[in-house]
Amino acid sequence: MKRLHYALLVAGFAGCGWLLSGAVHEVGHAIVARGAGLDIVHIQPWALLGQAHVRLAGETTRSWYAAVDISGMLFTVLVGICGTVGASLLAQKWRAVSLSVWLFIPMMCQCLAWVALPVAIIFGASVSRDDVTNFMQHTGWHALAVLLIGLALVTSCAVVLRWAFKRGRTNQCFHATTESLA
Ligand SMILES: [Zn+2]
User: Domain range for residue 143?
Assistant: First the structure.
């Protein structure tokens, strides 16, 4: 029963994390778009209310457009990494914080798209317009270069997660034990 309780809590945190990851992604696009001098016409950050998106107006350089394209994912992965490290460190002091690590794991998962999509493009798949294809168009970079960015991010997230899980085993934040559920 306690294991089920724990699993439900993890699923709840991960679900909230997934919802938040979409919002953080759109805020990331919006921040860099403002830096690029673009206007934010409309922002809808919640995936539950339809497709999350930010609508921009104005003109900027191709480099700025490329920065806007990648900023949603980069900002989310960064928040995911910092949140995971922060929650793991705080969990040592306050055990109640430990489960909040699961809020940040879905955020880190966004970099997986920057591996999967370039691979699909390399193998000839036609991918609809999204951040990855827009980024490739604005930079003129080959899918292989974008794949390297994705792989570097996935590796960084894997290192952080490995560290957090190792720490979690000591803090028992990833394991259903009588103590951690008390
Ligand atoms: Zn995006």
Answer: 2-181
